[in-house]
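FORM 12-B: Structure-to-Sequence Request
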């Protein structure tokens, strides 16, 4: 498969041209990649018009992923999420309506920032229970009843989620089609799912649009992402999608990132399925050995190992520290979980190194306590936009009970908030915030 962006960048780098254009390093080496770091010069195309080499590369990606249309982003899935929700809001506004989106409560904070920017309404998917704020187990019958009653513009789900749990996209898609709602999927952690056998990518399972963070599971530089469209979304938005990506994105996209997205097409075409198959087998073996050693797990996702080490006597953070001392760095940890993300680039040797580090750890008495239960969701008092732009102050979490949360302040990873802008913080939410290490929040000034 051709790599038109990468080829152009290489040719320009070797041309010995004097660069009287941005960036300021002029191709001279400081970190070592500067010679390939260019801007929208003649022949380089432009990300938000994509009539040349970028458009050609995007078509290559669409063919690999089996989508009606794929466009590139250089600011991660966050850019793509905001663009999807911008399009949904714009379509509703054209009808003189305000969009309603039914979403999983475990949505990434970029979903909530989009609610502030575009002022759409949202309601949460009914759940069967709540093991963690990072997951959402949809109660499908209750979800269908809600969609039938409310007739939302779209449903928005996160699958896979941060812990490696996946939603039943096919069943949720059927509900959406029945009631003419669009299905949007935050598939940031699952770009590789298309290339499994059988495949499990959201578009092939019935989603209308989804975002993939290519940089999370493919050999792409940080920020590289795809916004994919199925046939229904393509008919509605193909003419405006680049405008919405431009609305929420930088006018200076990284050509290093674009070139790495371009090269990923050739990487995928050249034996990736076989490498992925072998990696999945090795991950399954590690999961079995770790479980045999007594360390609990909860991830069903093929390339994610989510440890639950409290059963083994350690908090998630303590277990992460053990691994870090062995020069094994997890993706994320909190009080309950240690999350490790795998790709073929870890290799069998890397996975065996992980297995040895886990299996030589001494078992301790199990830790019985878990996160506080959120027995009742915080009350929604106003829209996310109203709360964000209201006068506000920062207070200690212990003093926030009864106050309305102004802005979502959460670190990434995992970038999933416990409470949402416009909600009145209750006792349960405050305990949960403190449990996960939040010391203060910004609340509406009353």
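FORM 12-B RESPONSE
SEQUENCE OUT:
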């Amino acid at each position: 498969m051709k790599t038109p962006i990468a080829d152009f960048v290489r040719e320009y780098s070797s041309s010995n041209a004097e660069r009287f254009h941005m960036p300021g390093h002029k191709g001279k080496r400081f970190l070592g990649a500067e010679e390939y770091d260019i801007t929208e010069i003649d022949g380089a195309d432009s990300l938000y018009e994509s009539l040349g080499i970028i458009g050609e590369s995007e078509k290559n990606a669409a063919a690999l992923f089996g989508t009606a249309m794929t466009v590139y982003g250089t600011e991660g899935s966050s850019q793509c999420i905001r663009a999807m929700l911008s399009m949904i809001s714009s379509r509703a506004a054209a009808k003189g309506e305000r969009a309603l989106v039914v979403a999983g409560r475990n949505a990434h904070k970029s979903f909530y920032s989009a609610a502030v920017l575009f002022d759409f309404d949202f309601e949460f998917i009914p759940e069967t229970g709540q093991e963690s704020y990072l997951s959402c187990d949809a109660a499908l019958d209750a979800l269908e009843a809600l969609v039938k009653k409310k007739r939302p513009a779209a449903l928005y789900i996160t699958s896979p989620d941060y812990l490696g749990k996946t939603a039943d996209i096919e069943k949720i898609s059927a509900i959406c089609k029945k009631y003419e709602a669009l299905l949007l999927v935050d598939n940031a952690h699952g770009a590789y799912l298309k290339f499994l056998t059988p495949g499990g990518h959201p578009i092939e399972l019935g989603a209308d649009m989804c975002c993939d963070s290519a940089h999370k599971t493919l050999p792409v530089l940080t920020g590289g992402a795809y916004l994919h469209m199925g046939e229904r979304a393509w008919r509605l938005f193909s003419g405006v999608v680049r405008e919405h990506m431009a609305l929420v994105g930088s006018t200076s996209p990284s050509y290093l990132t674009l070139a790495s997205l371009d090269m990923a097409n050739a990487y995928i075409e050249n034996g990736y399925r076989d490498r992925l198959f072998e990696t999945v087998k090795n991950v399954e073996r590690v999961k079995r050995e770790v479980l045999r050693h007594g360390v609990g797990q909860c991830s069903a996702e093929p390339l994610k190992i989510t440890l639950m080490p409290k059963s083994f006597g350690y908090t998630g953070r303590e277990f992460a520290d053990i691994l870090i001392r062995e020069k094994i760095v997890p993706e994320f940890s909190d009080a309950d979980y240690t999350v490790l993300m795998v790709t073929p680039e870890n290799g069998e040797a890397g996975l065996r190194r992980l297995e040895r580090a886990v299996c030589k750890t001494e078992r301790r008495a199990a830790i019985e306590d878990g996160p506080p239960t959120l027995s009742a969701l915080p009350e929604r008092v106003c829209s996310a936009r109203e709360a964000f732009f209201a006068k506000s102050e920062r207070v200690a979490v212990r003093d926030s009970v009864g106050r309305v949360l102004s802005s979502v302040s959460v670190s990434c990873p995992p970038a999933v908030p416990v409470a949402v802008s416009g909600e009145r913080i209750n006792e349960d939410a405050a305990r949960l915030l403190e449990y996960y290490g939040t010391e203060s929040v910004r609340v509406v000034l009353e």
